[in-house]
Amino acid sequence: MQWISYTRLLDEKIQGAYKTMSNSKKLDAMDKKLISYLSEDGRMPVKELVKKLQITSPTLQVRIKNLLQSGILKIAGVVDIFKTKKLFMAFIAIRVLMI
Q1: Is the pTM higher than 0.85?
Q2: What value, to the nearest 5°, has the Cα angle with vertex 31 and ends 28 and 32?
Q3: pLDDT digits over 28-58, tens only?
Q4: What is the 3-state secondary structure of 3-47?
Q5: What is the largest CA-CA distance in the chain?
Q6: At residue 43, what are phi and psi to the nearest 5 degrees?
C-alpha cells in the first residue's frame, strides 16, 4: 500500500516540475551567460561576474534571485567521491507504471 502512495507522490512531483518548467520565464542572453559562468565556477565573485557580464551589482543580484525563485538555478554542494574515502553516493529515480 505504501509503495503506491510513494509512486503517486513521485508522479505529482514530476508533473509539478513540468508545470514549473512550462510556466517559467524565458531565458534571455544575459541569463544564459550568467548560468554559463556559474556552471564553470559556482563560487565566482560578484565583482568578477559584474565585470564579465558588464552589468551593475544590483542587476546581477536581481537576476540571480529571479533564477533561484523560478527554480531554473539551484545552489547545491557536490561531494567529490573520488577524494573521500568510504563514502558512496547514488542518485536514483525509478518510475513504475501500473498496467
Answers
A1: no
A2: 85
A3: 999 999 999 988 888 899 999 999 999 999 9
A4: HHHHHHHHHHHHHHHHHHHHHCCCCCHHHHHHHHHHHHCCCCCHH
A5: 56
A6: -110, 20
Cell numbers found for residue 43: 563560487
- Contact indicator for 53, 33 with CB cutoff of 8 Å: yes
Q: Which fold has domain 2-70?
A: Arc Repressor Mutant, subunit A (1.10.10)
| The three grid cell numbers given for residue 81, joined into one nine-digit string | 567521491
Whole-number Å distance between alpha carbons of 71 and 76: 13
Nine-digit cell string for 51: 565585470
What are the pLDDT digits (tens) for 82-95? 777 776 666 677 76
